[in-house]
Specification:
nine-stranded antiparallel sheet; seven-stranded antiparallel sheet; 48% strand; 2 helices; mainly beta
């Protein structure tokens, strides 16, 4: 009889320890590539019969190096689902999801933060050492996230969702290298129908006098002298945009990149070589190791970027 009572007490003790809040079930999707639905704001990861789903309503992933935090709430949701069969993108993204597989269990979230660290993805041209931004990597981590399960809760101080990569079209830079100059401001510019590269050049660099062999006139890019600006426009750009007291409001500028100040003998150097051409002069402008920057993102034009040629007469 004593043995029976002891076994009953032991069983009760074991049952009393089965607290849902203490059952830790491991879920990990860090090494799985993130995908997105094209018709809504859902990003997800799939692993066999499991899905980790992130929904950020109305959030636009940035195109610059930046760190952001979002509250987990009804607009920014995190869900973990377990299905009774292999799950595919159509299961997550279709307005009317397929009948199978069926959701066997779902964890919701009741609090925490979504931390998004964004960095640019660059490619380098090994010939001229120029760089291009080809995408942005958004590293996503959940902080102090609480999953609400059918048998309790599960809390993670840090839960890595992983990387979500969005490709980006590199800036065109489809210039014809034929420079024009404003008569009053002496500003140089090259443009096409959608973009412009503008140099507020020091007038002392453009002189109607041939430069000696291998001895160009030089200057440094800065915010106050020799300012270099790249603009990408959302409308049709024409020559009427330039040489005004102020730049017109249209076409609208969709992106603007400003060159970083140069360092003597190192970067951001302007070289102008002048040669006689008939009754006039040809000025060839080269930008050496110029770095363009927007916010915290940047790219390099290369070791020797030929800005273009300007023709002048006396």
């Amino acid at each position: 009889m004593k043995r029976v009572v002891s076994l009953l007490v032991f069983a009760l003790l074991l049952n009393g320890c089965d607290d849902g809040d203490l059952i830790q079930e491991d879920i990990s999707f860090e090494d799985i590539a993130a995908q997105n639905c094209t018709t809504n704001d859902i990003i997800y990861k799939l692993k066999d019969s499991e899905a980790l789903i992130l929904e950020v309503l109305g959030f636009t992933f940035p195109t610059e190096t930046i760190s952001q935090e979002l509250d987990i709430n009804t607009s920014n949701r995190v869900l973990y689902r377990f299905y009774n069969g292999a799950v595919t993108s159509s299961t997550i993204c279709e307005t009317i999801p397929p009948a199978t597989p069926i959701v066997m269990d779902q964890w919701t979230t009741s609090g925490g933060k979504i931390v998004i660290n964004t960095t640019a993805i660059k490619t380098t041209n090994t010939t001229d050492n120029s760089t291009k931004i080809t995408g942005y990597n958004h590293n996503i981590t959940f902080k102090n996230i609480t999953f609400v399960k059918s048998n309790g809760t599960q809390v993670y101080e840090t839960f890595p969702f992983g990387d979500y990569i969005i490709s980006a079209t590199p800036l065109p830079f489809a210039f014809n290298k034929t420079l024009e100059q404003c008569s009053s401001s002496k500003q140089l510019y090259d443009y096409n129908s959608s973009e412009a590269l503008i140099l507020d050049i020091d007038p002392a660099l453009i002189v109607n006098e041939a430069t000696p062999l291998n001895a160009p006139r030089t200057g440094l890019i800065s915010d106050t002298k020799n300012k270099l600006t790249y603009r990408l426009f959302s409308g049709l750009l024409t020559g009427a945009y330039f040489c005004n007291t102020t730049f017109p409001a249209t076409p609208a500028v969709s992106e603007e990149w400003i060159a970083v100040a140069g360092v003597a003998n190192e970067s951001g150097i302007i070289e102008v070589t002048t040669a006689t051409l008939g009754a006039g002069f040809k000025h060839t402008v080269v930008l050496k190791k110029a770095k363009m920057k927007k916010g915290s993102s940047d790219f390099i034009l290369g070791d020797n970027y030929i800005y273009g040629e300007l023709l002048t007469t006396n």
